[in-house]
Amino acid sequence: MSIATDTFAAWLGVLVETIDEPGLTGDEVAARLHLSRFHLDRVVSGVAGEAPSTLRRRVLLERAAFRLATGRRTVLDVAVEAGYGSNEAFTRAFRRAYGVSPSQWRSRPGTLRIESVNDIHFHPPSSIRLPAQRKVSVMDLIQRMVEHHIWLTGELIECATPLTEAQLDEPIVINVDDDPDPSTLRRIISRLVGQMAMWNASMASEGYDFAVEQGESLTSARRRLAEAAPVFLGHVREAIEQGRLDDVFVDASCDPPYTCSYGAMIAHVLTFAAHRRTLAVLALDKHRITRLGWGDPISYLDAAPTPH
C-alpha cells in the first residue's frame, strides 16, 4: 500500500470507531492519527474524491435515514445523533440528499445510499460499507446460492443427528407458509404471484394486501401475474445490469421495518418459489397433467430463444 492509501485506511478505521461521536471535529480526528488537519484533508480528499468532513456527514446522514425508517425516535433525536444542532438544519440537509423531508421519508422510505464518487456508505445496522473489490455478477449470485445450499444441507444433517430413528421417519405435513390451513394448488399459485407483487410493493415503499390471495380465481391470478411479473423482472434486470445486487432498500411493510439487499431478495424469492413450484407440479401430476414434469429449469435455460 502507498502512504496515502495507508493513511486513508487508518482514517476509515477512525471513522468506524467514532461513528457514534457525531460532534467529533476534523482537528480531533487528525490528532488521533497524529497528523495535521491540512495533511489529513489532502490525503483523504485525494484518495476518496471527497473531503473527510463531507464523507463523514454523508455517512451519518445515511445512518439517520436508516434510523428514521426503522425506529421510533423523534426527528430531533435523530438529527442530534447525526451531529446537527437544530431540526431545521437537519431537515435542509436531509431534503438536499433525499429530495423529501425526514417525516416524509419515515412514512415512505427508499434506497438509503446517497450518490457518491467513492461508494463508501453506511451499512445497516451499524457499520460502514467500503467499495467492493468487484461487482457481484449473475454467476456470482448463482454460486453464492449453491454455496448456501451446501452449507445449509450440512447444518440440517448436524441438527438432525440427535434425533431418534422414529423421529427421523415421522411424516411431514408440507407447508412453507406460517398458516394453519393446508396448502392447495389454488393457494400455491396465488402465493407465487403474490410473492412478486409483495416485493414490488416493498421496493416501492407501499403496502401489500394479502386479502387478494384468499380464494383467488385463476383469472385474477393470471391478471396479477401480467401486472407484477414485468415489474419484478425489471427490478432484477436493473440490479444486475447496474451492479446493484448488494444495494439495500428499506422494507417498510414489516413491523419493525428492515433493510434488504436486492441480491438477498432475489435469492429469497427463488428459494421459496422453487419449493412452491414443486408442490404445484406434484398436485398437477395427481390429476395426470404432466407436461411440466418437475418444472426443472434445465430444459428452459438450454432451449433456443424464441424469435420475436
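The above is record 1. Record 2 follows with the same two-line structure.
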Amino acid sequence: MSRMMFVNLPVADLGKSIEFFSQLGFEFNPQFTDDTATCMVVGESNFVMLLTREKFSSFTPGLEISNTRESAEVLVCLSAVSREEVDALLDKAIKAGGTSFREPEDYGFMYGRAFRDLDGHIWEFMWMDPAAVQSDN
C-alpha cells in the first residue's frame, strides 16, 4: 500500500513562505490553500502543509509552538537527482532568504546540504548514487 505523507509546519507569514518555496520550484495545490494554510506539493504523494501559527495551534491544543530559531523539531530531507541539483537548490534557498545550516556533507556515494527556511525549519537536499542503493526485493 502506498501512503500519502503530509508534514505540517507553522509559519509566521504564509505569503512570504509561499514566495520563498516558489523560488525553489515548488508548486501549491490551490484546492487546499486559503489565508491560513497552503499545500506545498513535494512529490506525487508527499506534501508539506504550511500553516499560520494560529492554524497550526488548532491542531496542537495546549502545546506551545517551538521557537525553531533556538531549537529543532524536525529535519525535512528531500532527494535530488544530482549533486549539481543539491547545490542549485541550496543556492536558490539562500538567494530567497534562507540561511545555510551546516557545511555540505560529502560521503562520495551521498551528498547533502542543509538550510533553514524563513521560519527556521531545517531542510536538507540530498543526492545518493543509485548504484549504492541496493534493493532487497
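Strands lie at 5-11, 27-29, 37-43, 46-52, 75-79, 99-100, 105-106, 110-116, 122-128.
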